[in-house]
Amino acid sequence: MPLFSKKDFANTKWYILEKICQLIVGIYITPKIFNSLGAFNSGELEISKAIVGVLTPFFFLGLSAICIRELVFKPKLKHSIIGTTLILRFFSFLVVSLCLLTYTYFTNTSEITLIVLILAFSYLFKISDVIEYFFVATKKYKIVFYCKITTLALVLAAQYYGVQNNFGAFYFAALLCFEFAVQTLIYLGVITLSKQLYFKQLKWSSKLAKDLIKSAFPLLVSNFIIVFYLAIDDFFINHYLGNSANGVFSVVDFLVIFITWNIGAAFIYGLYPALAECYLDNKELYLKRLKFMSKILLVYGLCIGLFYTFFADFIVTTYYDDSFKSATRPLKIFAWSPLFIFIGMLFEKHLVNQNKLHRNVYRFVLGCVVNSILCFLLIPKYELIGAAFAVLISHFVTNIVFILLYKSYRTHIKTFLLANH
User: Fold this and answer.
1) Using one digit for the tens of pLDDT, what is the confidence trace for 172-181?
2) pTM score, two decimals?
3) Which residues cross the membrane (predicted)?
4) What's the domain count of the chain?
């Protein structure tokens, strides 16, 4: 029996191809946006994204992985699963938006506050992700690919127009609303024409809602801790060094996370349905698939670290203006983070299958504590280099050290991650 079917790899191919297209577009337009806005305004936009990012788990409710898992395990209940998830997501948007508006009403309004409200409103259209879950679970990511690439082309044109006319942070924040709205319209059109789902058959199930929330709650908590964990360095940099430094470090985040990290994530997400479907019935095949994916991810993570170690100076000086030149050394340090993060992402999928997501909560609580302490100690003295080291070390503790704390994982570490066939 082959390790993965042709359908599994075909599904993953579309995931990765999407990220490569985003990479090409990102390399072309994102430096132009940074240069157009400058370090200070880029910093305002990025800290606004970080604030909204902390709230995203409450928009998503941790339902993404759980919904996909349930669609894989119980395909006959697809209309109930999708209908219930849609309503839960819409309700969460209303609650979070109301809280944000209430906070804004009783505080002084600033540019950052208004950008946060614009970014938050975009999540109304992000609810259409539930349709994407269906295509992921049924290994039809090719459809998602064409939808997202169409959206990407329209957003690229709007971004280029904004750069040419030197529009500010508000314009580029509003483009997120535009992106999600276009994507929603395309998804609705595809579903209507393909007849793979029927909106009239979508239905609410109270029992299913309780089961979904119960299963997703640990993921909601862990996702909140994750985004807070990822935003800690932004908040410390903004506090100690200001918006301009945040703008510079956002270049580091973009080059490592958006351009390279996302491709590794696409590989994991693309093959996840294949992992889930054999977890219950064929543990031997499941472990072989985990080992194969671990090896690919480790090699890819190593390549990312080496690439930026040798080419960081060239990339920063060639594509960014002088206000971003201090990003070079932090980039060389932070570039090694994916080596650890990929293992943690795969470990999280394993926890989803085991239904032991409470361990993911513990994992990122540890990461938050370590990252906060290191940022507090290193950023005031070593500035952005200290921030890069703080994030790198915290990723190592969160994604490697934590796994080794469990005897069961230590016992099976060779077969789970590193063993040869």
Assistant:
1) 888 888 888 8
2) 0.70
3) 50-68, 80-106, 112-136, 143-163, 169-191, 212-232, 252-275, 296-319, 331-348, 360-379, 385-406
4) 2
